[in-house]
Specification:
Length: 213
């Protein structure tokens, strides 16, 4: 994700704490209270500029969406999109997904999306991949029983690595697509990266997986 330094980002975040929640660990086990309803919570890790989460929130108004994004200069763009959309079922968090278990309680999340996560192709960087087993452990610790991890990417190497990682962890692979757009899922919401790569003719891979008891 291209990151331009945005000197106004700090001011924006200070003025928009209703969109990008500061100190998110204070809301652990209280996210539904913050949304003001009892709807299920879906989390996108590595939200980027927010196209997916805004599209999903419009498509599923009875689901609460929370986007986690590491980069301050990227999350402000997502926050502007959320603001423009007027959707009240989206909140954003500027955090490293490493801290997921400080933010969410066991069983608090129904679905986790990983969209076009950075591939980190060098073996020595494998532990930074969002599908490395240490991250899977964090997802397992927050997902409800039968909650899904839904992973999309254009990167075949990362996809193959991730399928093995899920399987070695003991997850059940529920649905695998090697060309999502050809398989035509009418409910699919495209991310910024998905639009860019599919426009170049690259296939999009998707896997849905669940943790087993
Ligand atoms: N999901 C978007 C899409 O599909 O268009 C953005 C994809 S971009 C390649 C990956 C994003 O994940 C970047 O914005 C990056 O800052 C974010 N990211 C990477 N590692 C992260 C982490 N550990 N925690 C939170 N966000 C992370």
């Amino acid at each position: 994700m291209r990151q331009r330094n945005k000197p106004w980002a700090d001011d924006f975040l200070r003025e928009n704490t209703h969109l990008v929640i500061p100190n998110p660990s204070e809301y652990k086990n209280k996210w539904k209270e913050l949304f003001g309803n009892d709807n299920p919570i879906h989390v996108e890790v590595g939200t980027g500029k927010g196209q997916f989460i805004v599209g999903m929130a419009k498509q599923y108004p009875n689901i609460n969406f929370i986007g986690i994004e590491l980069s301050k200069s990227v999350i402000v763009t997502a926050a502007e999109k959320v603001q423009e959309s007027g959707q009240s079922n989206i909140l954003l968090i500027q955090e490293n997904a490493e801290n997921l278990t400080d933010i969410f309680m066991e069983n608090e999340v129904s679905t986790i999306y990983l969209n076009f996560s950075d591939p980190w192709p060098k073996n020595r960087h494998a532990k930074r991949r969002l599908t490395f087993h240490t991250f899977l452990k964090r997802y397992e610790a927050t997902l409800a029983y039968n909650g899904e991890l839904i992973f999309k990417t254009d990167n075949r190497g990362l996809f193959e690595y991730s399928l093995v990682s899920f399987s070695e962890y003991g997850m059940l692979l529920k649905e695998i697509s090697l060309d999502l757009h050809k398989d035509h899922d009418p409910e699919n919401v495209m991310t910024e990266y998905e639009e860019k790569f599919s426009a170049k003719g690259q296939p999009i891979y998707r896997c849905k997986a669940v943790f087993q008891e």
